[in-house]
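chain below, 222 aa
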Amino acid sequence: MLDMNRYFFTVLAIFLLVSINTIAKGDSKDFNFKPVDKRLKYVEDFFNLYNEWLYQDTDNISRNIYFLELAWVLPFDHPIRALTPISNEVHWQRYKYLIKMHIAVLLAKNYLDFGKQFYKENIYFYSKEYEKELLDGYEIAESYFKSALGWFKIAKKYANLVSEYDPYLYGTTLYYMEDEYKKIMNGEIYYDVVVNRLLNKIKENRNKLKSLKDFDWVEPIP
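prediction:
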Protein backbone atom coordinates (compact mmCIF):
# COMPACT_ATOMS: atom_id res chain seq x y z
CA MET A 1 0.00 0.00 0.00
CA LEU A 2 3.00 2.25 0.66
CA ASP A 3 3.95 1.77 -3.01
CA MET A 4 0.47 2.85 -4.16
CA ASN A 5 0.71 6.04 -2.12
CA ARG A 6 4.20 6.72 -3.50
CA TYR A 7 2.77 6.39 -7.02
CA PHE A 8 0.14 9.01 -6.20
CA PHE A 9 2.76 11.43 -4.93
CA THR A 10 5.06 10.67 -7.88
CA VAL A 11 2.32 11.94 -10.20
CA LEU A 12 1.93 14.97 -7.97
CA ALA A 13 5.70 15.42 -8.01
CA ILE A 14 5.79 15.65 -11.81
CA PHE A 15 3.21 18.43 -11.73
CA LEU A 16 4.96 20.35 -8.97
CA LEU A 17 8.40 19.98 -10.52
CA VAL A 18 7.08 21.51 -13.73
CA SER A 19 5.66 24.36 -11.65
CA ILE A 20 8.93 24.83 -9.77
CA ASN A 21 10.97 24.84 -12.98
CA THR A 22 8.59 27.37 -14.53
CA ILE A 23 8.99 29.66 -11.53
CA ALA A 24 12.76 29.17 -11.53
CA LYS A 25 12.95 30.36 -15.14
CA GLY A 26 11.06 33.59 -14.45
CA ASP A 27 12.70 36.96 -14.80
CA SER A 28 14.24 38.25 -11.56
CA LYS A 29 12.17 41.42 -12.01
CA ASP A 30 9.07 39.32 -11.35
CA PHE A 31 10.19 38.75 -7.76
CA ASN A 32 10.66 40.93 -4.69
CA PHE A 33 13.87 38.98 -4.04
CA LYS A 34 16.69 37.54 -6.10
CA PRO A 35 16.05 33.82 -6.72
CA VAL A 36 18.87 31.44 -5.75
CA ASP A 37 20.59 30.29 -8.92
CA LYS A 38 20.86 26.59 -8.17
CA ARG A 39 18.79 23.47 -8.57
CA LEU A 40 17.21 21.77 -5.60
CA LYS A 41 18.98 18.41 -5.60
CA TYR A 42 20.02 17.45 -2.07
CA VAL A 43 18.23 16.19 1.02
CA GLU A 44 18.80 19.48 2.81
CA ASP A 45 17.26 21.50 -0.06
CA PHE A 46 13.86 19.81 0.01
CA PHE A 47 13.89 19.20 3.75
CA ASN A 48 14.02 22.95 4.31
CA LEU A 49 10.82 23.35 2.27
CA TYR A 50 8.79 21.42 4.84
CA ASN A 51 6.25 23.53 6.72
CA GLU A 52 4.04 23.07 9.76
CA TRP A 53 0.55 24.35 9.00
CA LEU A 54 -1.79 25.91 11.51
CA TYR A 55 -4.81 24.66 9.56
CA GLN A 56 -4.20 21.39 7.76
CA ASP A 57 -5.95 20.19 4.63
CA THR A 58 -5.15 17.65 1.94
CA ASP A 59 -3.33 20.23 -0.20
CA ASN A 60 -0.74 21.37 2.32
CA ILE A 61 -0.31 17.87 3.77
CA SER A 62 0.31 16.41 0.31
CA ARG A 63 2.79 19.23 -0.38
CA ASN A 64 4.76 18.24 2.70
CA ILE A 65 4.67 14.55 1.79
CA TYR A 66 5.90 15.37 -1.69
CA PHE A 67 8.94 17.32 -0.45
CA LEU A 68 9.72 14.84 2.32
CA GLU A 69 9.63 11.83 0.00
CA LEU A 70 11.88 13.66 -2.44
CA ALA A 71 14.26 14.41 0.42
CA TRP A 72 14.20 10.74 1.38
CA VAL A 73 15.57 9.49 -1.96
CA LEU A 74 18.02 12.32 -2.72
CA PRO A 75 21.71 12.35 -1.70
CA PHE A 76 23.06 14.48 1.13
CA ASP A 77 24.85 17.72 0.35
CA HIS A 78 28.57 18.23 1.03
CA PRO A 79 29.34 18.05 4.79
CA ILE A 80 30.39 21.70 4.76
CA ARG A 81 26.76 22.58 3.92
CA ALA A 82 25.19 20.23 6.46
CA LEU A 83 22.47 21.55 8.77
CA THR A 84 24.91 21.32 11.68
CA PRO A 85 28.71 21.59 12.03
CA ILE A 86 30.38 18.28 11.08
CA SER A 87 33.81 17.35 12.48
CA ASN A 88 34.59 13.97 10.87
CA GLU A 89 33.15 11.08 8.86
CA VAL A 90 31.74 9.28 11.89
CA HIS A 91 30.00 12.49 12.96
CA TRP A 92 28.58 12.88 9.43
CA GLN A 93 27.25 9.32 9.43
CA ARG A 94 25.35 9.87 12.66
CA TYR A 95 24.02 13.17 11.28
CA LYS A 96 22.67 11.38 8.20
CA TYR A 97 20.96 8.72 10.30
CA LEU A 98 19.42 11.45 12.47
CA ILE A 99 18.08 13.31 9.43
CA LYS A 100 16.67 10.09 7.96
CA MET A 101 14.98 9.33 11.28
CA HIS A 102 13.42 12.79 11.43
CA ILE A 103 12.16 12.68 7.84
CA ALA A 104 10.58 9.28 8.48
CA VAL A 105 8.88 10.65 11.62
CA LEU A 106 7.51 13.61 9.66
CA LEU A 107 6.25 11.28 6.93
CA ALA A 108 4.54 9.11 9.54
CA LYS A 109 2.92 12.21 11.05
CA ASN A 110 1.79 13.59 7.68
CA TYR A 111 0.39 10.29 6.43
CA LEU A 112 -1.47 10.00 9.73
CA ASP A 113 -2.84 13.53 9.32
CA PHE A 114 -3.73 12.80 5.69
CA GLY A 115 -5.68 9.71 6.68
CA LYS A 116 -7.61 11.69 9.29
CA GLN A 117 -9.00 13.87 6.50
CA PHE A 118 -11.04 10.84 5.37
CA TYR A 119 -11.72 9.28 8.77
CA LYS A 120 -14.99 9.65 10.70
CA GLU A 121 -14.66 8.62 14.30
CA ASN A 122 -18.29 8.15 15.27
CA ILE A 123 -21.10 6.08 13.79
CA TYR A 124 -24.62 7.24 14.63
CA PHE A 125 -28.01 5.53 14.45
CA TYR A 126 -28.73 7.35 11.17
CA SER A 127 -25.33 6.62 9.57
CA LYS A 128 -26.63 3.75 7.43
CA GLU A 129 -27.78 6.36 4.93
CA TYR A 130 -24.14 7.37 4.38
CA GLU A 131 -22.70 3.87 4.49
CA LYS A 132 -21.00 3.98 1.08
CA GLU A 133 -19.35 7.35 1.71
CA LEU A 134 -18.16 6.27 5.15
CA LEU A 135 -16.79 2.94 3.92
CA ASP A 136 -14.99 4.64 1.03
CA GLY A 137 -13.48 7.11 3.48
CA TYR A 138 -12.37 4.33 5.80
CA GLU A 139 -10.68 2.51 2.93
CA ILE A 140 -8.68 5.63 2.01
CA ALA A 141 -7.89 6.45 5.63
CA GLU A 142 -6.78 2.87 6.30
CA SER A 143 -4.37 3.05 3.37
CA TYR A 144 -2.71 6.23 4.66
CA PHE A 145 -2.67 5.00 8.26
CA LYS A 146 -0.81 1.88 7.15
CA SER A 147 1.69 4.09 5.32
CA ALA A 148 2.17 6.07 8.54
CA LEU A 149 2.80 2.80 10.36
CA GLY A 150 5.41 1.78 7.79
CA TRP A 151 7.24 5.10 8.02
CA PHE A 152 7.29 5.04 11.81
CA LYS A 153 8.79 1.57 11.70
CA ILE A 154 11.55 3.03 9.50
CA ALA A 155 11.96 5.98 11.91
CA LYS A 156 12.56 3.56 14.81
CA LYS A 157 15.09 1.66 12.72
CA TYR A 158 17.10 4.84 12.12
CA ALA A 159 16.74 5.88 15.77
CA ASN A 160 18.39 2.59 16.69
CA LEU A 161 21.20 3.35 14.24
CA VAL A 162 21.68 6.78 15.82
CA SER A 163 21.91 5.12 19.24
CA GLU A 164 25.07 3.28 18.17
CA TYR A 165 27.03 6.56 18.31
CA ASP A 166 28.12 8.43 21.41
CA PRO A 167 25.97 11.62 21.49
CA TYR A 168 28.61 13.45 23.54
CA LEU A 169 31.23 12.90 20.85
CA TYR A 170 29.01 13.04 17.77
CA GLY A 171 26.01 15.07 18.85
CA THR A 172 24.56 17.85 16.67
CA THR A 173 23.11 21.30 17.15
CA LEU A 174 19.81 19.99 15.73
CA TYR A 175 18.42 19.91 19.26
CA TYR A 176 14.80 19.26 18.28
CA MET A 177 15.89 16.16 16.34
CA GLU A 178 18.10 15.01 19.19
CA ASP A 179 15.13 15.41 21.53
CA GLU A 180 12.90 13.55 19.07
CA TYR A 181 15.45 10.72 18.93
CA LYS A 182 15.42 10.39 22.73
CA LYS A 183 11.61 10.39 22.81
CA ILE A 184 11.44 7.60 20.22
CA MET A 185 13.94 5.51 22.18
CA ASN A 186 12.02 6.16 25.43
CA GLY A 187 8.64 5.38 23.87
CA GLU A 188 7.36 8.94 24.26
CA ILE A 189 6.65 9.20 20.53
CA TYR A 190 4.39 6.30 19.60
CA TYR A 191 2.69 6.82 16.26
CA ASP A 192 2.48 3.03 15.94
CA VAL A 193 0.19 2.81 18.98
CA VAL A 194 -1.95 5.71 17.72
CA VAL A 195 -2.28 4.23 14.23
CA ASN A 196 -3.14 0.74 15.50
CA ARG A 197 -5.89 2.24 17.66
CA LEU A 198 -7.30 4.04 14.62
CA LEU A 199 -7.14 0.88 12.49
CA ASN A 200 -9.00 -1.03 15.20
CA LYS A 201 -11.58 1.78 15.38
CA ILE A 202 -12.10 1.57 11.62
CA LYS A 203 -12.72 -2.17 11.92
CA GLU A 204 -15.16 -1.54 14.76
CA ASN A 205 -17.01 1.16 12.81
CA ARG A 206 -17.30 -1.03 9.73
CA ASN A 207 -18.97 -3.70 11.86
CA LYS A 208 -21.29 -1.09 13.38
CA LEU A 209 -22.35 0.07 9.94
CA LYS A 210 -23.17 -3.48 8.89
CA SER A 211 -25.34 -4.00 11.96
CA LEU A 212 -27.33 -0.77 11.53
CA LYS A 213 -30.86 -0.81 10.23
CA ASP A 214 -32.04 1.58 7.56
CA PHE A 215 -33.13 4.90 9.02
CA ASP A 216 -36.25 6.29 7.41
CA TRP A 217 -36.81 9.97 7.78
CA VAL A 218 -39.36 11.97 5.89
CA GLU A 219 -39.11 15.71 5.82
CA PRO A 220 -42.33 17.14 7.23
CA ILE A 221 -44.51 19.12 4.89
CA PRO A 222 -44.60 22.79 6.01
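Confidence is low (pLDDT under 50) at residues 14-37. The two ends are 50 Å apart (CA to CA).
thats it, cya
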